[in-house]
């Protein structure tokens, strides 16, 4: 027997769904790496004025690379060092770490001197160059003083190789000689009033943002730390690195996903069982929703190649909206009784579902227009999920729900819906809405705004405290505020940076930058000219008491050769600092407490120099988007209104549009009364309130004529959809991410108000009669 069109459509949809599920399983688990994106920077939009500035931000943020940076602290110096040795040994046993540095390997200290001898005449500190150029400078006197200086223990060139001491002074200013950590007992150690701090660096065998690497590495560290703390009482282990921030973000997202996903699933299940009094509608509703979530996940990974944490948590909340479509179909079935016919049910709900889908997709499409990676992913996820869930109602559910419902909707639920519908409809409801709008005005007037970056990224306070302590003690950990120096070529960049660093040195501001290691060719030429002006170096050296052979070797080496960018890159000691250099730019990082206002003052008037303050840039961008969002919200209202006017006429459109608009007005007023400053994320959520709220008005408007024989049944279906949405989106208010908290609270208030006001959109009895 030839299968029916209903069966064929269901078979095709089921086959495609199985393929999508298989693809989703492979994308999530079959490629060896997780697509879950725990890189916090990847969630943020580009905020700087050009690609060089964005590259600089990323370079500085990743300066520590895929490493754990640990400081082992104890008041007893010996205990701190022994604890650090044991911690390093324990970590080194796990292959998740490519390399663990606790004790320094043997190396020739001359490696920090010998590479610079060919360039010694070009490498002078500012102080030495000015001293050589000063009137009355006597090379002979300087050489005699140098010969009579007591020899220190510092590593440096031989006296014959550096008779004036200028190379020694330059080497003293190199980053490794300015570090607070010094080698002691083959360990890098810093001393503070409260004891000793010993550095341990563990390099990962993989990316800090790989979920498997995160879990294994942190588990190993936690176990090793427990053993060390037990063996050496009073020991503390401070930690920082991208892996800890990524892991904290992942843990927070998993916790939020479990809270939202599990709580909303259980709540929705209990509600559906109560209303439909059967397991079958519950399972079918969840099947439709699950297919929507799987389709959304696959679409998002295919489009973006990854899944952000924010999208993951938002996806858990999407359950409450995706289930709306199947709920409306299930309600139509329950209301039809014995006269149920699957395809007639599809034709009954199709106009409402398509119009509701269009309004929802409009709200999410506006999110997709925002150049903000996290919001774009959320939009694509929602658009795909909503579309799949809706199509499943048209193609899959008719084949699964051929027979009539065993019972109508739960009578208590319908009676409650009917009682409220009578209260919230008619002219009396319009008067009440008008009064409430007046009452909302003070709430609007109380509104402030907040565009802080910590709305999106809020790492644990304990981790931030440890990072700040490590930065203060050891100088590790990138900051988010720095000077960016740009130029047409490498030489221009270095000259521009020297103009800045000369000013920093004059104002006694500590810094780390390129020109401390690589002077510009112009500056090197000035250094060489200062050395050349001293006259015949050999004669002065011999006169001062140097052996003729030594003086001959030094004079023969003059003038040496300039130190180039290629030479700098070839020096192993400079490898940790290569993040400071870009093709047409460099980074200068302030050391110590330097506020942004002073940084801007120090850079004022210097060509090619700007201050990059990533948190402030993002906050400014949030503020701009917040302003644009109000315009987008207004545009969305106009578009939705036009769609409703096309379907219902002008007067009908006003009635259908009133509940979501009033819901938005009352929601914003409630935020003002609650003292919640308005943020970008509140406004993004209001767009969803418009889309979701319009769904409820449409469901009631379209469903009322089909359930006139059961007063209150259509509104009961609306309330059912609203409660499921509140059980999911509302739980976002409990999220650990402030942005999602704002999403959740806004949707909780907005959807709640809209659902209660939905009866205003119901058609008048004469319209139903027609």
From TrEMBL:
Cleavable signal peptide: none
Any one annotated GO CC term: plasma membrane
UniProt entry keywords in alphabetical sequence: Cell membrane, Membrane, Transmembrane, Transmembrane helix
Main subcellular location of this protein, as a coarse class: membrane
Family matches, as InterPro entries: MMPL_dom, Mycobact_MmpL
Protein name: Membrane transport protein MMPL domain-containing protein
Compartments, record wording: Cell membrane
Membrane spanning stretches: 258-276, 283-304, 310-331, 352-372, 378-401, 429-445, 627-646, 653-674, 680-700, 712-734, 740-760
Membrane topology, as annotated: Multi-pass membrane protein
Domain Membrane transport protein MMPL: 193-401
